[in-house]
Amino acid sequence: MSVAKHHVMIKGVKDGLVFLLNDGCDWEELLQELQHKLEKTHQQILTGPIIHVNVKLGSREATEEQKEEIRSVIKQKGNLLIQSIESEPPKILTPEEPKSAITTLRGMIRSGQTLHHEGDLLYLGDVNPGGIISSTGNIYIMGSLRGMAHAGSEGEEKSIIAASHMRPTQLRIAGVISRSPDEWGIEEAFMEFAYVKDGKMEIDKLHQLHRIWPEAPIK
């Protein structure tokens, strides 16, 4: 019966040899190939002076009996001195970091007050003239925005600013600053959002948001 030639890898390192043993194959096949390589294919490089050997089992949890089987096979070559037979520590599966959720805050930002938030922000309340609201993500205001708003404050130009009533003194998205609200060309100021397009601030009705953000599939 032919012996597979891919379950055992022997690598030379500074201090000797490392035997890398496949952790997904049958144990008997592994031992058979280990024996074959020591006796046949690698016989020439495994002779001579004492060589230190470290055996790596991958993620396989070998019993003491199985480790002894490995020792018995390798010890047949008198010049091989086993230093260690080790398995990798089990991998601890950690849940993925949740995508940043929207934080909801409520209140009123008065003149001279500043509210800064990390991530997306849903603000239930008004931002009065002289008040500032800023966020590293998107800003959604369920109320009147009559002060200053700065979304994507750390440079994210894909952020948006949306408000139930949009009459700010100034809008900023990343490093882009809005024109004067009088130049927007929109008579009404209800349910709008600001976004950056080609490096310029644009204003549109909130129901047009799907034009820049693809719709999520309904499950």
UniProtKB/TrEMBL annotation:
GO biological processes: cell morphogenesis; division septum assembly; regulation of cell septum assembly
Residue ranges constituting the Septum formation inhibitor MinC C-terminal domain according to the UniProt record: 106-203
Domain of life: Bacteria
Keywords, comma-separated and alphabetical: Cell cycle, Cell division, Septation
Matching InterPro entries: CAP/MinC_C, MinC, MinC_C_sf, MinC_N_1, Septum_form_inhib_MinC_C
Domain Septum site-determining protein MinC N-terminal: 8-85
Hydrolase in keyword set: no
Family affiliation: Belongs to the MinC family.
Oligomer and partners: Interacts with MinD and FtsZ.
Stated role: Cell division inhibitor that blocks the formation of polar Z ring septums. Rapidly oscillates between the poles of the cell to destabilize FtsZ filaments that have formed before they mature into polar Z rings. Prevents FtsZ polymerization.
Protein name from the UniProt record: Probable septum site-determining protein MinC
Organism the protein comes from: Paenibacillus roseopurpureus
Taxonomic lineage: Bacteria, Bacillati, Bacillota, Bacilli, Bacillales
